[in-house]
Structures are given as C-alpha cells and as structure tokens.
Design goal:
Strand order of the largest sheet: 3-5-4
Strand content: under 5%
Structural class: mainly alpha
Radius of gyration: 24 Å
Number of strands: 5
Order of helices and strands: HHHHHHHHEEHHHHHHHHEEEHH
Amino acid sequence: MSKERKDIDSRYKWNIEAMYADAGACEEDMKECLAMAGEFASYRGRLAEGPRTLLEALKAKDALWLKAERALVYAHQKKDEDGRVAASQALYDKAQTMAARLSEAVSFFAPEFAAIDEELLRKWLAEEDGLKAYAHYIDGILREKAHILSDEQESLLASLSELTGVCDDVFGMLNDADFRFGTVRDENGEDVVLTHGSYSVLMRSRDREVRRSAYEHMYKVYEDHRNSLATLYNYNVKQDIVYSRIRKYPDSLGAALYGDDIPVSVYDNLIKVVNEHLPSLHRYTRLRKKLLGYDELRMYDMYVPMLDVPDAVIPYEEGQEMIFRALAPLGDEYLAALRKGFEDRWADVYENDGKRSGAYSFGSYDSYPYVLLNYKDRLQDVFTVVHEMGHSMHSWYTRRTQPFVYGGHSIFTAEVASTVNESLLMRYLIDNA
C-alpha cells in the first residue's frame, strides 16, 4: 500500500534540495533565463560575421540552456513526487512556458547558422580553436539542414512547443494522480489497496484468484476510460505525423530516429529478428502453462514463478549490497561512485500517493543523475534499481568528461550501460544460487 509522501523517511527521498532550496529559487532562475534569452537576441543576423561571433553565440546559447535545464528538471521532479500537489503542477507549467519562450527566442539560430556556407564554416573551424569543441555539434546541424525551416517558421513551431506534450501530461495525470483501482484481497485474506506498485507484487502471488482479481480491477479502470485514452493516443500519433511532415521527414519513424543518426534499417531489423524468434516465446508460454498445470494460460499467469520457490523479501539496503557485489567486475572507481550515489540520495525509492509510476533516470547537466523508483522489496525491484542506476552512472561519467553541448546521450546508447548492469546481476545470481 502506498503512503502519503510526508510519511516516508527522508533517507528514501531524492535529495532534490541539492538543486534548489525551494520552488522560489527555481522561479528566480526562470526569470533570469528569460532575461538571458532577451540578451541572446543581439546575435540575430550576426552569426555570419565571423568565427569569434559564432563562438560567442554558441557559448551564450549553452549558458542559457544550462540554467534553463536545471529549472526544468527540478519542476519535472517536483511534479513527479506527487502529481496532486497544485503548487508543483503550477511550477511545472511555468517551466514549460519558460522553455517555449526560450525556444522561440533562439529559434533564429538554426536557420541562420544553416545558411552559412559549409566551406566557410570548415575554414572557421580550422582558424578558431574555441570552435573545435563544437565540431561534432556543427556537423549535426549541417546534417539536419534539409529539415531546418525558415526563421519565421522555426519561431512559430517553438511558440507551439508548450503544447506538444499535452497528451503525455494528461495521461500522466490520469494514470498517476486520478485513477483509483480499488482494493484486492490477498492470499492471507487481507485487503490491499491496488496501485501500480502493489500490482506487480500481486501478479506474483501463488493464488491464481488473487492475480485474476488484481488484473481485472486494474484493467477495468483503463477499460472504463478507453475512449478518452484512445483519443489521447490518436492525437499523440497525429502530432508525430504532422511534425514529421512540417520538417520534411519521410515519415514519423524516420523523424524519431534521425536525431540520433540511427538508420531506419536498424529499427526494421530489430522487428524482423523479434518476429523470427517468436517460436521461442511460444515454446516458453507452452512450458509455463504445463508447469503451472493450467488448461489455458491467461495474462495474469505470466509473472508468477513457474516453480514453487519462496518470493524473497529484499529490503532496499540489502538490494544495494547485492548490486555492489554483482557489479564488482566494473572496478573500484565505478563502485565508489555508485555507492556515493546511494549515499547522496540520487534515488526516490518508495511509492507514495500521487507519485509517478514506473522508474526512470533523469537530471540536468549540473545536478545529480536522479532516479525515480517504486521499490517493493522484491528481486525484480533490485533489477530495476541496477538498470536505472546504470543509466545514471552513464550520465555521471558523461557529464564529468564532456562539455554541456555533449552532456546528453541517446536512449539507444544509454540502454547498453543498463543492459551490462542487468547481465552482471543475473550472472551473480546464477553463480550464487
């Protein structure tokens, strides 16, 4: 059962105060960002003056987004702590509005930059040492030249950016703040409030009736809202299609992959390989049905252990120690940084009412690489921790070694770090079974 956030020990809440002492300090940075955006306008029409002016503009843009990113992340995290809190919703809305205004203020940069002759840009890169750090970034803009619009069009799209996440935001409020899934009686005859977190535990119950009841209670709520949810999904897809057309991409898939320079053939091959190996999945489900002794396998039968083994309770601290032992092959430096991350409270550990469901790793360039969890003291939760901390350690190393302009990384490459961590944990469990 989830609690009110105030009832959770501070040791298990992320150290969000390391970013800002309070929301007021965050709002002050937002105001400063808007002032910086006004000053950035002085570079409009001047990027082609020469390498020194271009370098100054690039540094000014980085400084603007560095400060803005911090405020955006803080507002995002505060909303995810408890989406029912009006003050957090208001702060997040202010941050989204600020981001739209900043995007509009700097929208002239890409089309004006793309208009500079590429040969001249290469000459500037050779002449101005400071520009060399931006060589890869410049290559990226030149690669996207065909999809950069006019100054006026870019400004218009930037002004609309405040609306582009509306479908996701509405679904998030429904899913995490408004939906109530009722109660389910567990195998001990006790009533359990059904939440996203307790659902994962109930799905592993040895009592099939408990699993069926939890599954039907959960999905009845989604079924009751199927028209609204389908409409949100429909317009989310339409938005992707419209924006891909506006920017002259072949389709929405190509647009989604283009920014990370991933060929569509990679995506198509992934689907192909999955389809080719579906017989292995079908064999697994037949084996599961046989071992569980059912005539027909249901979706609520997919997570219960196939063998009658104890469902071990693993407290968060015990899970951490398990992770340290499993990741020992990554070396002392990695483990020391990881341990410091736990000590410094990168993670928001336990479920509370109104908290965002699921798990993620997120942060700004100059903040901790925070982790949101909904830990339920089970082995699958330990895997979630090691996965998300893999992302955060990737971010930690990136931001220690790269300037702000390269401080991010694509989810496509970030999954590699997390997969390595999960594989090491699995190997540790097998070796110590």
